[in-house]
Amino acid sequence: MIQIQNLHFSYKKKKVFDSLNLQFTPGHVYGLLGKNGTGKSTLLRNIAGLLFPKKGSISVDGNIPGQRSPQFLQNIFMVPEEFFLPNIPIDQFLKYQAPFYTRFSTEQFNRYMKAFEIPTDSTLQNMSYGQKKKVLISFALASNAKFLLMDEPTNGLDIMSKSQFRKVLAEALDDDRCIIISTHQVRDLENLIDRVTIIDDGKILFDHNIDEIAKKLSFRISFDDTETKEAFYSESSLKGNVIVAANHSGDESKIDLELLYKAIVMNGEKLKTAFTS
Amino acid sequence: MQQLFNFQRCNLLVAKHWAENKKRYFLSFAAYISLVFVWYVFVMMTDDSDPLAGGLQRITFYFSAFFVGPFYASQFFKELGSKSKGTSYLMVPASSLEKLCCSLLYAVIFFPLALFTAFYIVDIVAVFIANSSHTSYTGLKDQEGGILRAKLVNILWSDRRQEREVLHYGILIFFAIQSAALLGSIYFAQYSYIKTAIVLTLLFLFIAWFTHYIVGNILPSGNFHNNITRYSVNEGSQYKLVQLPSWVGHVLEVGLFYGSTLTLWVVSYFRLKEKEV
Fold first, then answer.
1. For residue A145, what is the nearest residue in chain B, using CA coordinates?
2. Angle between the B54-76 and B7-46 helix axes, to the nearest 10 degrees?
3. Considering only alpha carbons, which residue of chain A is nearest residue B98?
4. Using a CB-CB distance cutoff of 8 angstroms, which residues of chain B are in contact with residue A83?
5. pLDDT at B159
6. pLDDT tens digits for B119-151?
7. Mind telling me how many Å the CA of B92 is from chain A's nearest CA?
8. In this structure, is residue B127 part of a structural domain?
9. Interface test with chain B among A11, A41, A46, A69, by most B beta carbons within 10 Å
10. Do B83 and A80 touch (CB under 8 A)?
11. Domain edges within chain A
């Protein structure tokens, strides 16, 4: 479990987090959403031990990330937005990188690489950014690290690869693993995440699981002006008004993460009432 | 203890570094041999009398050691200056001590060995070529009436006691400078070679100033005799030699030449541990 308590973090004079409290538990895929510069990547880097809190504490399964102990690093894998892979053949990369991860599975790695349609006999030097990213994602999943942090994992992936990514990630889920995905491209995470955490201005704006959201909110097209006015968020489309409203009927609709995100950013306080009632 | 240092992990780090950098190292090795060979050919073309004298060979080696060595060492942690490479490096499941040991192994042990090998490869060839074709070695007589021959020089040993002392201290200073360059590469995100060179120069100037002006003003009129434990006091026309116990000299020597290197390693360890990217 990742426990963040009273986290304060700043870059020189720019304050990012001011008393942030958050918890991530195994068995879930968390979608970390937010505008640019709200601290999503900073939060992941704090959890990974690449940045140190100015105040407060982070605990990852009892380990302090900042200590970067080998045991902690074996249990956590970060796929950063800007990543680096050495210019060596994939088999060499595996030979020298995989032994650091005691639970690494070559069989799993080959399976993910096959799903991503990347030949395992290629050299990283000759690969495109997207292909390299797929190698890194395959490695991350095959490392069987308990905590997987992904910063904009679908950036640079083409449409087919995004769908492969969702498939591969869904396959890699289990009850012991905690996956945190930070992204702007919320549609890429649909049907994948089971908890949505939205950060804004260094604070948690919204943190609820998908089941709860589906029970409390309704995402639908409406032609009724009163309903549209009362909705937490609405936008016109060719089919009518797309709205995010309180779910009074009890019927669960398909969650549109992009609409949910817009609703929270535009009308967060009002939307919260749906979850408190 | 397993979390602080583990031989297996350290070996893995050494192997990983080699796998990722061997191409660069082989190219640098070849480039060094070529450059020194060109230098020797240039000297043979421009100097008609004993161009490959022992002094020139020694200067060539020590110039390489003191300029190329720190340059190599200052590149070791260069990746910490880049967010992507720094993340990849710091997230490798190994402790800071293991990472530092790996860097010391390459910068303080493997580099001198490689330099030694490369130097002698080109030196042997150059001496052979000089003795086969250079006019000063094929025609002229030496002082005893024999033909002057270019000889391979032992760069780590000399028959003269004073030269041996210089070599001994030279090697110790080399290790200290290599260690300082390693620390500089952790400390400075960019231009670490230049910045470390500036810091070392300023430090040297400060010590020289301190010794000359501060210590000079405290001590009575006179000067140091041979080393800093012997001071000759100038009293009019008479001189008095004040000598500190010999152990003071030994302690100062150990402290200065061995202690400074060890201190730099300890500081490097803590800097690496506290590094944020």
1. B93
2. 140
3. A70
4. 84, 87-88
5. 86
6. 999 999 999 999 998 888 887 565 666 678 889
7. 7
8. yes
9. A69
10. yes
11. 2-201, 210-276
Q: In this complex, is the C-beta atom of A62 within 8 Å of any C-beta atom belonging to chain B?
A: no
> Rounded mean pLDDT of B171-198?
95
Q: How far apart are CA A236 and CA A222, in angstroms?
A: 9
Position B200 in a domain = yes
Would you call A80 an interface residue with chain B, using a CB distance cutoff of 8 Å? yes
Give pLDDT < 50 ranges for chain A. none
Q: At what angle do helices A106-115 and A129-142 cross, to 10 degrees?
A: 140
Pull the structure tokens for residue B131: 């003795």
User: Please, are residues A179 and A29 in contact by the beta-carbon 8 Å criterion?
Assistant: yes
Q: Strands of A14-24's sheet, edge to edge?
A: A14-24, A2-11, A55-60
Range of the structural domain that residue B78 is part of: 7-219+248-273
Shortest alpha-carbon distance between residue B156 and chain A (Å): 36
Best B87, B99, B271 residue to mutate vs chain A (most A CBs within 10 Å): B87
Q: What CATH fold (topology level) applies to the domain A2-201?
A: Rossmann fold (3.40.50)
With a cut of 90, say whether residue B269 has pLDDT above it.
Answer: yes
State residue A102's pLDDT score. Answer: 95
Q: What is the ipTM of this complex?
A: 0.93
pLDDT of residue B28: 97
Specify if B125 maps to a domain.
yes
Give the closest residue to B95 by CA, choosing from B179, B6, B198, B206.
B6
Q: Which of A41, A45, A51, A68 to mutate to test the interface with B (most CBs of B within 10 A)?
A: A68
Identify the closest residue of chain A to B92 by CA–CA distance: A73
B237: which residues sit within 8 A by CB, 6+ positions away?
none
Chain B positions in Cβ-Cβ contact with residue A85 (cut-off 8 Å): 88
- The arrangement of strands across the sheet holding B238-243 comes to B222-225, B227-235, B238-243
Residue B232 resides in a domain? no
Range 64-93 of B in CB contact (< 8 A) with A: 79, 82-88, 90-93
Per-residue model confidence as pLDDT tens digits over A150-191:
999 999 899 999 999 999 999 888 999 999 999 888 888 888
Tokens of A6: 């009273």
pTM for the model: 0.90
